[in-house]
Amino acid sequence: MKYYIIAGEASGDLHGSNLIKEIKNVDSNAQFRVWGGDKMQAAGATLVKHYKNHSIMGIVPVIMNLRTIKANFKFCFKDISEYKPDAVIFIDYSGFNLRVAKMIKPLGMKLFYYVSPQVWAWRKNRVKKIKVLIDKLFSILPFEKEFYKNYGVDVDYVGHPLLDSIKQFKESESLSLDDFKAKNTLSDKPIIAILPGSRMQEIKEKLPEMLSVVKDYPDYQFLIAAAPSLEESYYQQFIPEGTDVKLLFNQTYNILEHATAALVTSGTATLETALFNVPEVVCYRGNKATYYVVKYLVSIKFISIVNLIMDKLVVKELIQDDLNYTNIKFELDKILFDSNYIAQINADYTLLATKLGGQGASRRAAEGIFKELSC
Fold first, then answer.
1. Domains defined for the chain, CATH in brackets
2. Which of 363, 318, 299 lies closest to 159 in space, CA to CA?
3. Ramachandran region, residue 54 (left: φ > 0; alpha: ψ -120 to 50; beta: rest)
4. Is the pLDDT of residue 62 over 60?
5. For residues 113 and 105, is the Cβ–Cβ distance under 8 A?
6. 339, 162 contact by CB (below 8 A)
7. Which pLDDT band, with edges at 50, 70 and 90, does 180 fall under?
8. What pTM was computed for the model?
9. Phi, psi (rounded to 5 degrees) for 279
10. Is 311 helix (H, G, I), strand (E, B) or coil?
11. What's the pLDDT at 320?
């Protein structure tokens, strides 16, 4: 069968790549055409557009790029119409994906959602659109199943695919600490990971603040997990001169595996960090106009997936004006030097892993999609 997958960021590309591999196991004739990234392409898909060329976040940036966004919708509709897939699979990226779903619904192919848009946080009116447009939703967070069922949406909870991704990494790509240090010419100092996100605008907002504390920790080395879609020069402008900060591309999991602590931008990376058992501080700062609109509309207590799943404050969130040098240093000191605090975080991380449904999420989603197509 023919599958068309649309993802709008690095995490979606990762989940999409694992889904492609699992679909191939249940459908030996599977063909894929995708909006995604390098990982989906490496898994055997034809890459139509890279997420770095069409991912736009925030109210103001969207307004400034309306012409480009409109052109992307038009191109996407035309491309799907000509490809004639048996199924279109949407991965998160709801602003774009739900509009595309509405445009292509009359074409008659099956529409699936894998990795739910965060409609439980804000814009709950989108649930009605999902119910009308999507044939089946495969959720990855434990609280989503009950939420969607309350709205009459056909949903299966498959567990979180990050468990599969991390397992695969540890089995085939993991480096020992000595090998990791040798590969990247690192010192013997303990590692503090910096995960500033994958989009230029979020990196510009947060990375300078995240790096503001570097000079206070001369006994540690800071490693920035850089997005492969961006140039090294873009990051270098934010790194203070004379500091022990290194920029590493395509090594996020090896960084986390050997990190003592982490400063992490909000999003999937907060969960990845927790699943590697690294104490973290969650960092968020966005465009002011966007932030205050979202703050007014959002109906959740936390911004990090870790805290949302656990339904309590497990990792500290520094949001908007609270993301500053003083607060970052205070929180980083706690996760480096307060043994009781560290022990509590580790205990919560253990419970978090048990709530995520175990390994096999990508396989269960692939089997579910193929079953729906075979009916």
1. 2-161+360-374 (3.40.50.2000), 177-355 (3.40.50.2000)
2. 363
3. alpha
4. no
5. no
6. no
7. very high
8. 0.81
9. -55, 135
10. coil
11. 92
